[in-house]
Specification:
By secondary structure, the protein is an all-alpha fold. It is built from four helices and no strands. α1 runs parallel beside α3 and α3 packs antiparallel against α4.
Length: 142
């Protein structure tokens, strides 16, 4: 008799890959904040707000991966097995890292830099392409 898959009963185990993603993401966030505070990059409330939002969203992605795998479905694809859940968790960790790197870029370049808008759009495009790739492989995972 085949058991029905229940995403609420899925346990996420600690892996080296997950730990590396989490550690690198948190280190990038910390470096970004230290640089912003040390070099006085936070020239307006918009800078503080955008950095705070990127920090919260990155940490939320990591938290959801580890503690709430039942609600990790950011791809919109119904998850029917543990392989698909693992791929969705990997995608969420990659998005968290890219958002942290976007924050580091924002800190280094500054929000008022002429190239910042196009750089941010480039980051969004890359995250979107990664998303399309993961949606495809999640659908194909059996």
């Amino acid at each position: 008799m085949e058991e029905k898959f229940n995403i609420k009963t899925v346990k996420v185990l600690r892996t080296k890959e997950g730990t590396i993603f989490e550690a690198v993401t948190v280190m990038v966030l910390i470096v970004s904040w230290v640089m912003a505070l040390f070099f006085h990059c936070l020239s307006s409330n918009d800078d503080v707000f955008s950095m705070a939002v990127l920090t919260v969203v990155s940490l939320l992605f990591l938290w959801r991966c580890y503690y709430k795998p039942g609600s990790i479905n950011i791809t919109g694809v119904s998850l029917k097995n543990t392989r698909q859940v693992a791929l969705a968790i990997r995608f969420a960790r990659i998005v968290a890292l890219w958002l942290a790197l976007l924050m580091l870029t924002l800190t280094v370049m500054g929000a008022n830099h002429p190239m910042m808008k196009s750089t941010a759009i480039g980051f969004v495009i890359v995250i979107g392409l990664i998303g399309f790739f993961f949606i495809y492989i999640i659908q194909k995972a059996e």
